[in-house]
């Protein structure tokens, strides 16, 4: 497996692969790989001739008081893990390669970025949409792979690709969890043992919501209240949001009909975790 740091090098690698008749899969990541990322890479491996994984902690998607500086990084370990699942090349550009002096172009997806993580992290999806557009233009993949763990992000990218006529397939991969249910995240390493235990309330409360819906509950406010109460009962947890929207349209809903996204963001100390589930109304 190769590691390249410049746009010219990754373009040349992809050009050669295309000449050899290969289709190209792209898995964008911020690194510090875990089983969730590896699952995206395996899916890409199954479907594409070559697999490009990007490892880039994208500064434009972090707010001024967020964890950009301390975001965990370990390229050597990432390279070992990516090679094991059959990634052909890692694209790991320095910040100046992606945002050289004078940079001033951004991609704004409207409406579906106004709630949930879009509301609690102003500018976040603008940074995501911008870097993903750049990666698509650099790599020109046939398919790109995203995790359902970041459900709103996956919808934003799907919308953007459709709206801007980007000629590729967007594949969404189910959330990979720890054996005890915690959604895998690079940020889980921030949690101390007490917070790690407390964080189980996320998957636990989503499960309870699914059970309530199975038992016939259709009132969105009641489902939100149930989840909020369960999380408030955990003293180490501080709710950022618990929200329910139609899925995939992300419109407000009062009663469940069809699919809805129940998504939450909760802080444990300085660490903000997200999780979600699709409710079947
Ligand atoms: P990140 O490095 O956190 O930006 O994530 C890179 C990609 O991996 C995104 O498409 C995420 O949605 C996806 N991802 C992160 N965690 C998980 C997980 N637990 N299960 C599935 N996909 C994930």
From TrEMBL:
<keyword id="KW-0436">Ligase</keyword>
<keyword id="KW-0566">Pantothenate biosynthesis</keyword>
<dbReference type="GO" id="GO:0005829">
    <property type="term" value="C:cytosol"/>
</dbReference>
<dbReference type="GO" id="GO:0005524">
    <property type="term" value="F:ATP binding"/>
</dbReference>
<dbReference type="InterPro" id="IPR042176">
    <property type="entry name" value="Pantoate_ligase_C"/>
</dbReference>
<dbReference type="GO" id="GO:0015940">
    <property type="term" value="P:pantothenate biosynthetic process"/>
</dbReference>
<keyword id="KW-0547">Nucleotide-binding</keyword>
<dbReference type="InterPro" id="IPR014729">
    <property type="entry name" value="Rossmann-like_a/b/a_fold"/>
</dbReference>
<protein>
    <recommendedName>
        <fullName>pantoate--beta-alanine ligase (AMP-forming)</fullName>
        <ecNumber>6.3.2.1</ecNumber>
    </recommendedName>
</protein>
<comment type="similarity">
    <text>Belongs to the pantothenate synthetase family.</text>
</comment>
<comment type="pathway">
    <text>Cofactor biosynthesis; (R)-pantothenate biosynthesis; (R)-pantothenate from (R)-pantoate and beta-alanine: step 1/1.</text>
</comment>
<dbReference type="GO" id="GO:0004592">
    <property type="term" value="F:pantoate-beta-alanine ligase activity"/>
</dbReference>
<keyword id="KW-0067">ATP-binding</keyword>
<dbReference type="Pfam" id="PF02569">
    <property type="entry name" value="Pantoate_ligase"/>
</dbReference>
<dbReference type="InterPro" id="IPR003721">
    <property type="entry name" value="Pantoate_ligase"/>
</dbReference>
């Amino acid at each position: 497996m190769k590691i390249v740091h410049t746009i010219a090098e990754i373009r040349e690698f992809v050009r050669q692969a295309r000449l050899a008749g290969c289709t190209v899969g792209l898995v964008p990541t911020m690194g510090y790989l875990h089983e969730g990322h590896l699952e995206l890479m395996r899916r890409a491996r199954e479907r594409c001739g070559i697999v490009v994984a990007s490892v880039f902690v994208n500064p434009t998607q972090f707010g001024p008081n967020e964890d950009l500086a301390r975001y965990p990084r370990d390229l050597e370990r990432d390279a070992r893990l990516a090679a094991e699942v059959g990634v052909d090349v890692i694209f790991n550009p320095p910040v100046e390669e992606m945002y050289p002096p004078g940079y001033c172009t951004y991609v704004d997806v409207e409406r579906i970025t106004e709630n949930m993580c879009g509301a609690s992290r102003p500018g976040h999806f603008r940074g995501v949409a911008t870097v993903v557009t750049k990666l698509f233009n650099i790599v020109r993949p046939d398919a790109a792979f995203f995790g359902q763990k970041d459900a709103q992000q996956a919808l934003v990218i799907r919308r953007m690709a459709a709206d801007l006529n980007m000629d590729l397939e967007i594949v969404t991969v189910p959330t990979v969890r720890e054996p005890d249910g915690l959604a895998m995240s690079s940020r889980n390493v921030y949690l101390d043992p007490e917070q790690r235990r407390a964080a189980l309330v996320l998957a636990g409360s989503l499960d309870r919501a699914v059970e309530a819906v199975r038992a016939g509950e259709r009132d969105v406010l009641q489902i939100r209240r149930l989840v909020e109460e369960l999380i408030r009962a955990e003293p180490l947890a501080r709710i950022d949001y618990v929200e329910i929207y139609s899925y995939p349209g992300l419109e407000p809903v009062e009663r469940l009909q069809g699919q809805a996204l129940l998504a939450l963001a909760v802080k444990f100390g300085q660490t903000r975790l997200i999780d979600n589930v699709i409710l079947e109304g």
